[in-house]
Amino acid sequence: MPMPPKLAEIVDEFAAAPRDVVLEMLLEFSDAVAPLPESLAGHEGMEQVPECQTQFFLRAAVNPDRTVDVWFDCPPEAPTTRAFAGILTEGLAGATADEILAVPDDLYQRMGLAQAISPLRVRGGTAVLARLKRQVREQIG
């Protein structure tokens, strides 16, 4: 199964962009992270991603129709990390569990981010995706 169309489009845009524009494009996604709903205040029920240099929390909820709701939280002072969340927020909106599980583990390398940001940041983004996929797998059995 291919990755969700919106995410594939984002990946293609980044992969085709000149290297000097990639970081600017990345930072635009940091604004795509919505505030947490009241039910997740204080990160209740969210998982922390310790591989990230900054505090990062996530939660995935698989609905009865197998679509997945995803929530992320990290501080605005960490725009690169927030951008990873923004990319997943936009790219996975309305995605099913199977579509999320089909997202390649090397997503950020495919986007060309390994040439634009530090390996430590790419590793953090990869960990976010891995934990998101694990939460989805656990819920669908």
UniProtKB/TrEMBL annotation:
Residues 13-135 form the Fe-S metabolism associated domain. Gene3D superfamilies: 3.90.1010.10. Pfam families: SufE (PF02657). InterPro entries: Fe-S_metab-assoc_dom (IPR003808). Belongs to the SufE family. This is Cysteine desufuration protein SufE. It comes from Polymorphospora rubra.
